[in-house]
Specification:
It is a single chain. The chain has two helices and 30 strands. It is mainly beta.
Length: 356
């Protein structure tokens, strides 16, 4: 039996056919016909058995799904994880044991804990469900209206926790209060529905920074304050993280076959300070520790940087990292990955434990 393009062929040798003919007695033609039909039936049955076996094997070796995002609760007790696994999962920080699992159809693209309350803001795409605010204590779910039917990828609470910004896949920016009431809605770019990949509030002002093909700054009313093309090539940006001082921020982009992925440091006015291109993969997410002296980046490895863009340490990963977050003490990092792995690291990017 051979296999070609998922079609299976069964070959009966000439010697087998000849043997069947010799055993048929005085009416060889009629008996050969019956034996051929019997062989055909056996072939079909064997084929069905093989197909069912392959299907069963496939079910027992499930494809790993991407865990897009992770975030540590502000009190350090819980870690939220989301991705293409049809659930928002919350783990206990000490042993990574599952604390709660909340069903969510399709892909969670980003999650963000409220800075002081037990609430998680969640964006979704490729789903009939809406992005939402989830109360971890009461299990209350507040759906967020007005977001693109294609979902969203950017979400962030402002520095006071009073406002929630969502950046969606139609190029819209929406601002809500903690009760999920829509306060303001405006576009990232006129006459464009280009998806926004990330959004980050200034740590001390109600100013928003979005990233797509460019870096853009907006006030609460939706006025465009500044727009920056981050490199000569047309390369998509994926991540942005303001330093808690408000003096500078960092962006990470996708890169492509010709151009390396860039990690870039910018001052508060949008002037480029430093560019780094050592990663072999895109910079999916960035996170500053609470003290503000270390930046963690998720790409082909976990890398730890200082405020000047110097590489301090690096942790090897067998697959690409997508989500990254620090605990409240700044001595632990959690990552989520392309192959559904959750890894706990110390502040020097050394593995402590992992679950799949």
């Amino acid at each position: 039996m051979t296999r070609d393009n998922n079609v299976y062929y069964v070959h009966v040798s000439q010697s087998v056919a000849k043997t069947a003919t010799l055993n048929v007695g005085s009416t060889p033609k009629k008996t050969v016909y019956k034996m051929t039909k019997r062989i055909q039936i056996l072939v079909i049955l064997n084929f069905l058995i093989i197909v069912l076996s392959i299907q069963t094997f496939g079910q027992n070796t499930l494809t790993k799904e991407i865990l897009w995002t992770t975030d540590w609760s502000p009190d350090g007790k819980y870690i939220a994880i989301g991705g293409h696994v049809d659930a928002l999962k919350i783990y206990r920080e000490g042993n990574l044991k599952l604390y709660k699992s909340f069903p969510v159809k399709n892909t969670i693209t980003r999650i963000k804990w409220h800075p002081s309350k037990q609430m998680i803001a969640v964006t979704i795409q490729m789903s009939d469900e809406k992005s939402f605010i989830f109360n971890v204590e009461t299990n209350e779910k507040i759906e967020l209206i007005g977001i693109s039917a294609d979902g969203a990828r950017g979400i962030d609470w402002n520095y006071t926790g009073e406002y929630l910004a969502v950046a969606d896949n139609d190029g819209q920016i929406l601002i809500y209060n903690t009760k999920g009431v829509l306060i303001k809605k405006f576009v990232n770019q006129n006459n464009s529905t280009k998806s926004i990949t990330a959004v980050d509030w200034h740590p001390k002002k109600n100013i928003l920074t979005t990233v797509t093909d460019k870096i853009r700054f907006f006030d609460m009313e939706g006025n465009l304050l500044k727009s920056i093309k981050h490199r000569p090539e047309d390369v998509l940006l994926l991540s942005v993280a303001w330093h808690n001082s408000g003096d500078f921020f960092v962006t990470g982009d996708y890169g492509d076959d010709k151009d390396k992925s860039l990690l870039q440091y910018w001052n508060e006015h949008g002037e480029l300070l430093k560019t780094l291109d050592i990663s072999k993969g895109e910079y999916r997410n960035l996170a500053w520790n609470p003290k503000g002296d270390r930046l963690a980046s998720a790409s082909d490895a976990l890398r730890i940087w200082d405020t000047k863009g110097n590489l301090i340490s690096s942790g090897h990963s067998k697959d690409y990292l997508w989500g990254v977050s620090w605990n409240e003490k700044g001595n632990r990092i959690i990552t989520s990955s392309m192959e559904q792995k959750i890894v706990l690291w110390n502040k020097k990017a050394k593995r402590i434990m992992a679950i799949e």
